[in-house]
Design a protein that fits this description.
There is one protein chain. With 361 residues, this protein is an alpha/beta fold. It has two domains: 280 residues, HypD, alpha/beta domain 2 (Rossmann fold, 3-Layer(aba) Sandwich), CATH 3.40.50; 44 residues, no CATH class. It is built from 15 helices and twelve strands. The chain has a five-stranded parallel β-sheet. The protein has a four-stranded parallel β-sheet with strand order 4-3-5-6, sandwiched between helices. Helix 2 runs parallel beside helix 15 and helix 7 crosses helix 12. The longest helix is centred in the N-terminal third of the chain and has 22 residues. It is globular and about 65 Å long. The model has no long low-confidence stretch (mean pLDDT 94).
C-alpha cells in the first residue's frame, strides 16, 4: 500500500508541476514561513520542477532561528545561576549566544535538560523539588497552547519551583513586518499547516487584503506544497489577494478555539525582538499578571548587555528573505553544522542547514 501511495503521489506531483509550467506567466517570489516546509522543499528537490517564473524564498519559519541573541544570553545566565535547572528543546542547546551556549554551559557543569514538552519540564520540577526548573518557551502558536497548559497545571498543583522564560512568537505580525520591508519582495505566502490548525485563517486575512498578497495554507508532503504553489500562482495570475486552504484534511478556517482559549488565558501579546526582523510590536507572548509567579523574568535577574550578530554572519538577512545562505561568506567555511556560527545552521528547520545538507551547488 505504501508503494502504491508513493506512486500515486509521484504521478500527481508530476501533473501539478506540468500545469505550473503551462500556466505560470508572471515572475513571482513566494515565501514559505515554516521551517518544516523549507526542509521538505529541499529534501524532495521541489525547486527543480518549478518553472523559471517562480522563485521560492525561505522566511522566518524556524522558531529557534528567530530567537534573539539576548534570549540565548538570558538562558545562559539562568544556567549559571546556582540551584537552577534549565529545560529546553534540543536544537536550542547548541545556538551560540554572545559568549557561550547552553551546550557549553552543560560541559562546564550546569544543569540543562533536553525535554520534549513543557509538561516534561514540569515533571522535572516535581522530581527535583530542591531546584528551580525553568523551561525555555520557544516556538510559534503551535507550541504555545501546550506551554500554557503546563503553566495552568503548575498553578493548579501549586508548584512553586517551576517557571517559564517565554520567547514565543506570533507569525502574522512577522508577515506584516516582512511586507513592510522595502528590501524584500514577496508576492505570496506559503503558510504553515500546523500553526493554522491553531489560529485559523482569519489572522492572515488582513495581511492578504492590506498588502494585496495572497496566502495559501499547505501541508508538508511534496504534493501538498506543489499544490499550494499552484494555487498561489493562480491567485496571483488572477490578481486575487485571498486566503485559501490547501491542507483541508487538517485545517479549518476557525482553527482550534479551545487551544487558543488556553493560550489566551495564560499569555498576552507583547512586543518581541526577532533575529533579522528587529522589534515587532505585539509579536510575542508574555505571561499574564495572574501567572506572574511562573514568569522567569520576574523571578530572576535576567538583565543582559546589548548584543550584536556574530561578525560576518548573515542569519538575519536569510531569515527575512534578503539573502540566501551561499551569499554569506561564512557558509560552508567557518559555519557548518558541526561548528555553527548562527542558528540557521543549528536547527533542523534552519535554512542554512537545509542548504548545507541538500544543495550541492
Amino acid at each position: 500500500m505504501k508503494h502504491q501511495d508513493e506512486f500515486r503521489d509521484g504521478a500527481l506531483a508530476r501533473k501539478i508541476a506540468a500545469k505550473l509550467q503551462e500556466t505560470s506567466t508572471k515572475p513571482i517570489r513566494l515565501m514559505e514561513i515554516c521551517g518544516t516546509h523549507t526542509m521538505s522543499i529541499f529534501r524532495h528537490g521541489l525547486r527543480s520542477v518549478l518553472p523559471p517564473t517562480i522563485t521560492l524564498v525561505s522566511g522566518p519559519g524556524c522558531p529557534v532561528c528567530v530567537t534573539a541573541i539576548e534570549e540565548i544570553d538570558r538562558a545562559v545566565r539562568l544556567a549559571r545561576t546556582p540551584g537552577v535547572r534549565v529545560a529546553t528543546f534540543g536544537d536550542l542547546i547548541r545556538v551560540p549566544g554572545s559568549e557561550s551556549s547552553l551546550k557549553e554551559e552543560t560541559a562546564a557543569g550546569a544543569k540543562v535538560a533536553v525535554v520534549y514538552s513543557a509538561l516534561d519540564a514540569l515533571k522535572s520540577a516535581w522530581d527535583n523539588p530542591s531546584e528551580e526548573v525553568v523551561f525555555l518557551g520557544i516556538g510559534f502558536e503551535t507550541t504555545a497552547p501546550t506551554v500554557a497548559a503546563a503553566v495552568q497545571r503548575a498553578a493548579q498543583d501549586q508548584t512553586r519551583n517551576f517557571s517559564i522564560l517565554s520567547a514565543h512568537k506570533l507569525l502574522p505580525p512577522a508577515m506584516e513586518a516582512l511586507l513592510a520591508d522595502q528590501e524584500v519582495k514577496i508576492d505570496g505566502f506559503i503558510c504553515p499547516g500546523h500553526v493554522t490548525t491553531i489560529i485559523g485563517t482569519e489572522p492572515y486575512r488582513s495581511v492578504a487584503e492590506r498588502h494585496r498578497t495572497p496566502c495559501v495554507v499547505t501541508g508538508f508532503e511534496p504534493v501538498d506544497i506543489l499544490q499550494g504553489i499552484l494555487m498561489l500562482s493562480e491567485l496571483i495570475e488572477a490578481d486575487r489577494a485571498e486566503v485559501v486552504i490547501q491542507y483541508k484534511r487538517a485545517v479549518s478556517p476557525e482553527g482550534n478555539p479551545k487551544a487558543r482559549a488556553v493560550m489566551d488565558k495564560v499569555f498576552k501579546p507583547v512586543d518581541a525582538r526577532w533575529r533579522g526582523l528587529g522589534l515587532i510590536p505585539l509579536s510575542g507572548l508574555g505571561l499574564r499578571d495572574e501567572f506572574g509567579l511562573y514568569d522567569a523574568r520576574q523571578r530572576f535577574d535576567l538583565e543582559v548587555p546589548p548584543t550584536a550578530e556574530p561578525p560576518g554572519c548573515r542569519c538575519g538577512d536569510v531569515l527575512r528573505g534578503a539573502a540566501a545562505p551561499p551569499d554569506c561568506r561564512l557558509f560552508r567555511t567557518l559555519c557548518t553544522p558541526d561548528r555553527p556560527v548562527g542558528p540557521c545552521m543549528v536547527s533542523g528547520e534552519g535554512t542554512c542547514a537545509a542548504y548545507f545538507k541538500y544543495q550541492t551547488a
